[in-house]
Amino acid sequence: MASQIGNLISPRLLRALLPPLSLAALLVTIFWLQPRTQSYFGLNLLLNLAIPIALATIAQMFILCVNELDLSIGAFVSLCACITATWLNDTPLLGVLALAGLVGVYALLGALIHLRNLPSIVVTLGMSFVWLGLAVLVLPTPGGAAPGWIRSLMTLKPPLVPFPIIAAVAIAGVVHVGLMRSAFGTVLRGAGGNPASLARAGWSILRIKMTMFALAGFFGALSGMALVGLTTSADANIALRYTLLSIAGVILGGGEFVGGRVSPIGAVIGAVTLALAGSFLSFLRLNPDWQIGAQGAILILVLALRVLISRGEARR
Amino acid sequence: MSGRLRQPWLWAWVGAAAVWLATAAFTGGTGSAQVLSAALTFGAFYVIVALGQMFVITLGPGNVDLSIPACMTLAGTVSMKVMGGAAAMLPVGLVLALLIGLGVGTVNFALIRLLRIPPIIATLSSSFIFQSAAIWYNRGLRVKPPEPLADFTTARIAGVPVIALAVAALAVAMHLLLTRTLYGRAVLAIGQNQRAAHLAGIRVERTRALTYLMCATLAGLCGFLLAGFSGGAALNMGEEYLLSSIAVVVIGGTSVAGGYSNVPGLWGAALFLFLLVTMLNTFGAGAGVRLVLTGLIIIGVIVAASGGRRRI
């Protein structure tokens, strides 16, 4: 039976289908457990917190694509959220400048890591202290307010399709076209696959790394803004768990740690899957203590399935 | 002399001494001995987990154990609750904490080996489960540790914390394990070139398994001792050890790319990290400034250390 299916669908296709299928399985189970989530309102509630996670996951994906790892993205998103809830709300110009400056710092980090050949894990680990410290300085106590336009964007109620679904598709689509379909995107990914040959071909690896880090910073900032739009206020620790969620999301979506093998669509799907994993258990009426554990278990389950498929691939 | 200057662990010790002297200069020398004593105690906890993390990181790129905090929390909460503050149960609690560490290490390596999950993701996802288990088991209770355990973790001989002496002895043993035994040489060889190590007849997977088991067991031990020191286990007790275990290893002069590591640097880096925070506190820096400066100084040390260490 299994081999018959294997003959019909190639393992490669099966592997590509794994992230959407896991998401679909999770969604169907949730619908079955709690039919009310099928409504427009239910879906909105179920999925809206997945948007900032998806943006942070895309940010992490850019870093992983050039064979680095960002352990500071959670603290960075927290900082951006704090700036959004304070400066961007009170003095928009200052807020925009601050966020743009942070994206610039990310580009410089990429340059530093590349030029001095530093381990990105350690540099970003150090930066996580810096971002958190700055967040505490900007917003010492939880509070602030979401700028009206972000708030109204995040609570948009378009007809028929809930906003989080439109946003997720838009994010995945834009990044997919930019990174996977464009000529420049191919060069960017090449820096993860074979930097030496890319350098021989006359491309500057330094500039590529800076671009990728800047893109990560940009999407990190968007994540912080989206988060504040949903929660209406911020605090310095608001998104610390995004660091681990974003790495897990990229891998869940079919990305690899090395070789520039990433998938923006997969990353968004992975992020949504992880966000839903929490809700899943609460609908099961299981102990809330096991919420985080469920995310770990789902991650392991999907990765185990991927190994099974790869083994099938190796046998042929 | 120039050879001595190039020792990778030197910078961590220089940094620790500089930071301590700066603190002493600021306060005019008052309380410097107490600061040092506190640094030795807290440094000892850093060193216990960093020893395990160092062996794991030495295995080569991609090898890192992110489940240390969850393992510490689980071992701490379960052992404290089982002992229930009774001194007679102390050996049971210790063995239990070590067994939990062993169990965590086994799960981690099973995920890495059988499911071929990258270690970062494997230890990360397993840590979610262990953290949940700790939350579920603990139920917010804070059970006091048995008297002798609390005494042991806070005792001093001639002003020197006993736990620091014990961990120093542990560090010496681990140094010998790394440099003088087949196992230690195998870990270094795998980190330098896994394929060459395999062809040279080293049993790569067995060595990796032992390393992950040891790392988790040390985390379990640290959780047990830390719970004893801080008057009971807390659910967030491991939190800061995720970053600091890696930071201590790297600042201590161990190569993140694997294959080169050293134990003396761990103590230097652990003292440096603690004294750095103390110094910023003494200077009256607020929480925000303190965090920013800690981060910048860590990065500064790494940039400086990597510049002096490039020798390929």
TrEMBL record, chain A:
Phylogenetic placement of the source organism: Bacteria, Pseudomonadati, Pseudomonadota, Alphaproteobacteria, Rhodobacterales
InterPro entries on file: ABC_transp_permease
Membrane topology type: Multi-pass membrane protein
Species of provenance: Halovulum marinum
Cellular component GO terms held in the UniProt record: plasma membrane
Keywords assigned by UniProt, alphabetized: Cell inner membrane, Cell membrane, Membrane, Transmembrane, Transmembrane helix, Transport
GO MF: transmembrane transporter activity
Subcellular location: Cell membrane
Top-level taxon of the source organism: Bacteria
Family annotation (Pfam families): BPD_transp_2 (PF02653)
Segments traversing the membrane: 12-33, 45-64, 71-88, 94-113, 120-140, 160-179, 210-232, 238-258, 265-284, 290-309
Protein name: ABC transporter permease
Entry keyword annotation includes Transport: yes
UniProtKB/TrEMBL annotation, chain B:
Coiled-coil residue windows: none
GO MF: transmembrane transporter activity
Pfam families: BPD_transp_2
InterPro entries linked: ABC_transp_permease (IPR001851)
One cellular component (GO) term of this entry: plasma membrane
Presence of the UniProt keyword Cell membrane in the record: yes
Entry keyword set: Cell membrane, Membrane, Transmembrane, Transmembrane helix
Transmembrane stretches, start-end: 35-59, 90-112, 119-137, 157-178, 209-229, 241-259, 266-285, 291-308
CDD domains per UniProt: TM_PBP1_transp_AraH_like
Domain of life: Bacteria
Membrane topology, from the record: Multi-pass membrane protein
Location of this chain's protein in the cell: Cell membrane
The protein, known as: ABC transporter permease
Organism the protein comes from: Halovulum marinum
